[in-house]
Amino acid sequence: MTNKNSIPATLSRLQIIPVIAIDNPQHAAPLAETLLNAGLHCAEITFRTEATVEALKTFASFGQFTLGAGTVIDKEQLNAAIEAGADFIVSPGFDPALVAECLKNKVQFIPGCCTPSEIQQAIKHSLNLIKFFPAEAFGGVSTLKALSAPFPNVSFIPTGGITANNVTSYLGLDCVTACGMTEIVNRDLIATSDFDTIFELTKKILDKI
User: All domains of the chain, ordered by start, with CATH?
Assistant: First the structure.
């Protein structure tokens, strides 16, 4: 478990957040081992499957991950994630009710925002670490450069369309804390237990940055 106050600094140091969708909870342990062996101690497990809570519990049991729960859209998911051991909560959008619930539980909340109005709402709720989603669909690096001008105290985690070909362009921006990536933990690779390829992709990215 990572202390809430250290989450932004930890993510900034790790730089890459694998955004994971697990269909079979039995794949969670070998995936966690693969990421650790590759040198990555961070993961965001998304509420896109029925196996999410079990996968979170498995990753948390290793005691070596800064662990996030992603695609959190309601309080039920949020509380289930916290009980399962999540260190931070990521939502695809901004929801004041989720902000309040995270504050109550002293857990870092990272809202998804892609417009100035959404970012201003996040700032009003004392949130300055934001998921920029979907990154590539909303203009990618050029949009982040534009948004950072009026919001110099906001840090972003671009997610959506981040690949080996563009990740360094994002990480090169002062306003970017880390990047969320699905490419290195492709859902099909997990489903077919192709952990060797996941290891190779992860190592390649970490060596690149």
Answer: 4-208 (3.20.20.70)
Please give the Cα distance from 34 to 20 (Å, whole number). Answer: 13
C-alpha span between 167 and 47 (Å, rounded): 24
* 3-class DSSP assignment, residue 179: strand
Q: Reading across the β-sheet that carries 155-158, which strands appear in turn?
A: 112-113, 129-132, 155-158
> CB–CB of 29/58 below 8 Å?
yes
What are the Cα distances from residue 196, in Å, to 59, 79, 157, 191? 19, 33, 27, 13
Could you list the pLDDT tens digit for every one of the 209 residues in the chain? 566 668 999 999 999 999 999 999 999 999 999 999 999 999 999 999 999 999 999 999 999 999 999 999 999 999 999 999 999 999 999 999 999 999 999 999 999 999 999 999 999 999 999 999 999 999 999 999 999 999 999 999 999 999 999 999 999 999 999 999 999 999 999 999 999 999 999 999 999 99
DSSP 71-121: S--SHHHHHHHHHHT-SEEE-SS--HHHHHHHHHHT-EEE-EE-SHHHHHH
Active site residues: 44, 131
Q: What angle, rounded to 10 degrees, do the helices at 75-84 and 96-105 form?
A: 30
